[in-house]
Amino acid sequence: MADKTFDTPVLIVGGGPVGLSLALDLGRRGIACQIIEQSDGIVYHPRATALNARTMELLRRFGVAEQVKRDGTPPDFPHTALYLTGFNGYEIARIERPSHGGRAPSPISPERPQRCNQLWLDPILRDRALGLGHVRLRYRCRFDTLVDDGQSVVANVTDLTTNTTERITARYLVDCSGSHSPIRRAFNIKMSGQPALEYHVSVFMRAPDLWDHHDKGKSALTFFIDEKGGWRSLVMIDGKEHYRLGIMGKEYYDNYKTIDVDKLFTEVTSPETPREIISVIRWTACDVVADKYQVGRVFLVGDAAHQNHPSGGFGLNTGMGDVDDIGWKLAAVLQGWGDPALLDSYETERRPIGLRNINQAWTSFADNRDRPSHPELTKDTQAGATARKVMGEQIMATQHAMVLTDGIALGYRYEGSPIIVPDGTEATPDTPSNYQPTARPGSRAPHAWISEGRSTVDLFGGNFVLLRLGATPPDGTAIEAAFRRREIPLDIVTLADPAIAELYQQPLVLVRPDGHVAWRGAAAPSDSLALADRVRGARPQT
Ligand SMILES: Cc1cc2nc3c(=O)[nH]c(=O)nc-3n(C[C@H](O)[C@H](O)[C@H](O)COP(=O)(O)OP(=O)(O)OC[C@H]3O[C@@H](n4cnc5c(N)ncnc54)[C@H](O)[C@@H]3O)c2cc1C
């Protein structure tokens, strides 16, 4: 799909889950793109596992949600978070998450939060993207430097298989190269926030039927606490036999190649528990956001733009939100109906969400870090029992917001965006755990079932959609005509269900290609062309 002067319309640097998702989103919208990835594409050590409901909605749009559920954690595996002194010690607290996993309908989304590690997610995304035909993926191809001349971006890359260098010319370059982004560094973009909060060693391991070797039952997340405080964690990866043991501490981080991780595991289980160590890496946790998400024709997306402490599991999920925002805007500009200024709204809309999510990750981390322990926490004494009870109550009071995050997942909204038309209504509370459905402009258009297995959310993700709601919806032809004049693709959907009309609060609601409400009203605005221009990023024209 290369044109005369460009090798590709969009060059994506980095083939992690965010780069692959962007390629998929662009590909679905008919935009050719090329991903370059320096590695061989194989995920050797598991990182992201927790996929929130919004990410699952995007995966549903991409047509892979069912496969993600099939390849991820079995539906009956509980997403319980456990706080223990050890598997053979005491239970301190237990947070159940019945709204996670499984296949039952949800009142707030057509999808529920799921667990599918990148070990399985990345290949699903890759295969789907490549199946679209106009997505090109090159492994073992490293980005080196770039020049943005105002009309195009020229990337200098190295083919690591042949060790040859070449140039790739693109209209836009999207940096999905993760936390060590060479592009962010080349532009000298600073990361603001809290660098190096904690030092970790991560151990990928097998422990088949671990729950048969202790009496605490199955859990997705297990946090181990001793008399000094939190010290180890165990994250279930596949609901069967794979886990990630997390060991916190600079002394372990500095010596991660020589520490006896097998012994460290048996300290929280027992020496008899069958296990096999697969791989060991080290990493540092931080809560940081890039000061800029855009420089000219280059955009920072995913971990290149923000990194957070993994408590809460926001990293990949926030990156998926970035993809949702930048994907349709790039497509709109490349297809000619979006004004180039539309792309500037990516940073305006997404950077505040990066800050919001990083802030919540920081709060969860601080709650955990600052919780005092007790010298007898692990002991079979009255003082130990009391200490566990007190700590358990503190955990229940603060950690719901770390492990139950529907508010973070579904409640983000684009306040102050130049391409959203506010309607003067008051914002719903923005809280980490509780999502309050709303169609207030800037919000994700809320879910309601419109027929068996089909949600309002399924209407969005392609063209703009004008919803005409209620028994006698107002005429939408003026808006339709304005969109036609500006060549903006628009679908008109009429839904008589009074419950949906009540949920959306106005009978005319304009929803963007990313499923966010752009405008709503009781009747078409007096100047529908101005509305069309605003949502496509242009100043009103006559
Ligand atoms: C222990 C741990 C647990 C986590 N758990 C969760 C979770 O449950 N849920 C969640 O949402 N997030 C979680 N995260 C965060 C999540 O892993 C990241 O947010 C996510 O991987 C970011 O995806 P990305 O595609 O932006 O970047 P990455 O996954 O880092 O991918 C970037 C890609 O760019 C490539 N690249 C880099 N430089 C170049 C170059 N010069 N040329 C070409 N290619 C290049 C890299 O090889 C890499 O493949 C966790 C992170 C950690 C460390």
At a glance:
By secondary structure, the chain is an alpha+beta fold.
Envelope shape: globular
Which percent band covers the strand fraction?
25-35%
Query: What count of structural domains?
Result: 2
Number of helices: 15
Coarse structural class? alpha+beta
Distance between the termini: 35 Å
Amount of helix: 25-40%
The CATH superfamily of the largest domain is FAD/NAD(P)-binding domain
- Which ligands does the model contain, each kind named once? flavin-adenine dinucleotide
Strand count: 24
**Which segments are poorly predicted (pLDDT under 50) over 5 or more consecutive residues?**
none
The mean pLDDT is 95
General description of the model:
With 542 residues, the protein is α+β, with helices and mostly antiparallel strands. The protein has two domains: 1-340 and 370-399, FAD/NAD(P)-binding domain (3-Layer(bba) Sandwich); 413-535, Glutaredoxin. Helix content is 28%, strand content 26%. The protein is built from 15 helices and 24 strands. It has helices at residues 17-28, 53-61, 65-71, 118-131, 182-186, 250-254, 261-266, 315-335, 345-369, 382-398, 400-403, 406-410, 477-485, 498-504, 528-535; strands at residues 8-13, 33-37, 50-51, 81-84, 91-95, 114-115, 135-139, 141-148, 153-159, 164-175, 191-206, 221-226, 229-236, 242-248, 276-290, 294-295, 298-300, 306-307, 449-451, 454-455, 464-469, 490-495, 508-511, 517-521. Strands 1, 2, 7, 8, 9, 10, 16 and 17 form an eight-stranded mixed beta sheet that branches. The chain has an eight-stranded mixed beta sheet with strand order 5-4-12-13-14-11-15-18. Strand 12 (221-226) and strand 13 (229-236) form a beta hairpin. The longest helix has 25 residues, at 345-369. The chain is globular. The chain starts with 7 loop residues before the first strand and ends in a 7-residue tail after the last helix. The model has no long low-confidence stretch (mean pLDDT 95). Bound molecules: flavin-adenine dinucleotide. Flavin-adenine dinucleotide binds at residues 13-19, 36-39, 47-50, 142-143, 176-178, 182, 202, 283, 302-303, 310, 313-317, 319.
